[in-house]
Design a protein that fits this description.
Layout: E1 2-5, E2 15-20, E3 25-30, E4 33-35, E5 41-44, E6 51-53, E7 60-62, E8 69-71, E9 78-80, E10 86-88, E11 97-101, E12 108-110, E13 117-121, E14 129-132, E15 139-141, E16 147-150, E17 157-159, E18 166-168, E19 181-183, E20 190-192, E21 199-201, E22 208-210, E23 217-219, E24 226-228, E25 242-244, E26 251-253, E27 260-262, E28 269-271, E29 278-280, E30 287-289, E31 303-306, E32 315-317, E33 338-341, E34 346-349, E35 357-362, H1 370-373, E36 374-375
Parallel strand pairs: 1-5, 4-6, 5-7, 6-8, 7-9, 8-10, 9-11, 11-13, 12-14, 13-15, 14-16, 15-17, 16-18, 17-19, 18-20, 19-21, 20-22, 21-23, 22-24, 23-25, 24-26, 25-27, 26-28, 27-29, 28-30, 29-31, 30-32, 31-35, 32-36
Antiparallel strand pairs: 2-3, 3-4, 33-34, 34-35
Length: 376
């Protein structure tokens, strides 16, 4: 490897040839530029406005202070302190990474075309940084600040690390993109996928995660998390999602699709939405929330509730369903309108002049009584 360093001013005053016998190459420093070789070069421009050419090989280019231009060429290149530096890469010229010190208080950074990865490095000062990806499969890694990542198109990997981060696989995208992997890390994070089968892990603390379209897997881990298989405003919520709340008091909403909703530890609120859903509360006092009778309609593909334990305070909540459509307003279910058949394991709520709701109960603790264990 050749290591080349510039001066502390604009590198435009000298013509210098330096011979490296080990690599048997010549390097040219001329008119603001440092030029590498087809081998793996380590180049630093220090202060001043520099132009660095890596050419072939896996190069490391550090523009230093000043507004620099870095050309990696072919090979898997690394660009350091790459802001406000301009980075230039050709298509299909290796897997390249920008390393940006967010101590420079970068507010908005758009990943350069044909550069795949970016890492925000730790500085003495922590700043909020917004990074927008490109159509490639990007890897974005945050530092200690409040980072906002938008992977844009492609199958992206976003890692927030510390701080209250916002991580979008493709924010507000209405076109198909790749299957993204999103990791919030520490902090109260907000994360969301887009089209594609996404994996979203909130990490520690209280996170808000959305799957959008596709067959997504959302994991809240520790903290009081809000997980939703689709978007809150209801567009493109299809997909068979898996929502795992982890520890903490979580809110889990499946939206449409045949979803698997796992509350795990804590006092959780589970809502499967439309589709044939599987819901398991786990330990704690859990609420199985039904907003409409067609969330699990009689005669259709009904939901399954597993391991319901009334002794832990579990409840089925039907309070938002109108039990009698003949009357105005929202009528509560009377005791005679709810029934549990222990032979079939089916719980039924009879809606007068409307479609009934049915739920399959498995692993049900003995002693279940609809009059006591259902919020009507």
């Amino acid at each position: 490897m050749a290591k080349i360093s510039g001066t502390n001013s604009n590198d435009n005053d000298t013509w210098q040839w330096t011979y490296f016998s080990v690599l048997n190459m010549y390097l040219n420093v001329f008119y603001n530029s440092l030029q590498g070789t087809d081998s793996s070069d380590d180049m630093s421009g220090l202060s001043g406005n520099d132009i660095l050419y890596g050419y072939g090989g896996a190069d490391s280019l550090d523009g230093g202070a000043g507004t620099d231009a870095l050309y990696g060429g072919t090979g898997d290149d690394n660009y350091y302190n790459a802001e406000p530096t301009e980075v230039f890469e050709s298509a299909n010229a290796g897997i390249d990474t920008m390393w940006v010190d967010n101590g420079y208080a970068v507010n908005l950074l758009t990943l350069n075309p044909n550069v795949e990865n970016i890492t925000l490095t730790v500085s003495e000062l922590w700043f909020d940084t917004q990074v927008v990806g490109n159509e490639l499969n990007n890897v974005m890694r945050g530092a200690n600040g409040k980072d906002t990542f938008d992977g844009s198109l492609g199958a992206d990997t976003l890692v927030g690390n510390d701080g209250n981060d916002t991580l979008w696989g493709a924010h507000w995208s209405l076109t198909a993109d790749g299957s993204d992997s999103i990791y919030g890390g520490n902090g109260d994070d907000v994360g969301g996928g887009s089209y594609g089968d996404d994996y979203i892990n909130g990490g520690n603390d209280n996170d808000t995660l959305y799957g959008d379209n596709g067959n997504d897997r959302l994991s809240g881990e520790s903290g009081n998390d809000y997980l939703r298989g689709g978007w809150a405003w209801g567009a493109d919520n299809n997909g068979n999602d898996i929502l795992d709340g982890g520890s903490g008091n979580d809110t889990l909403i499946g939206d449409s699709g045949n979803d698997t909703i796992l509350g795990q530890d804590g006092n959780d609120n589970l809502n499967g939405g439309l589709g044939q859903d599987y819901l398991a509360g786990g330990l704690g006092m859990d609420i199985f929330d039904y907003d409409f009778s067609n969330d699990s309609p009689s005669g259709g593909a009904i939901d399954t509730i597993a391991s319901f334990k009334w002794s832990e305070g579990d409840k089925i909540d039907l309070s938002t369903i109108d039990a009698n459509l003949f009357l105005s307003g929202n009528q509560s279910f009377a005791t005679g309108q709810m029934n549990y058949n222990s032979s079939t394991g089916i719980f039924t709520a009879d809606v007068i002049n409307g479609a009934d709701l049915q739920i399959k109960m498995i692993g049900l603790e003995a002693g279940f009584a609809p009059s006591l264990d259902v919020i009507a």
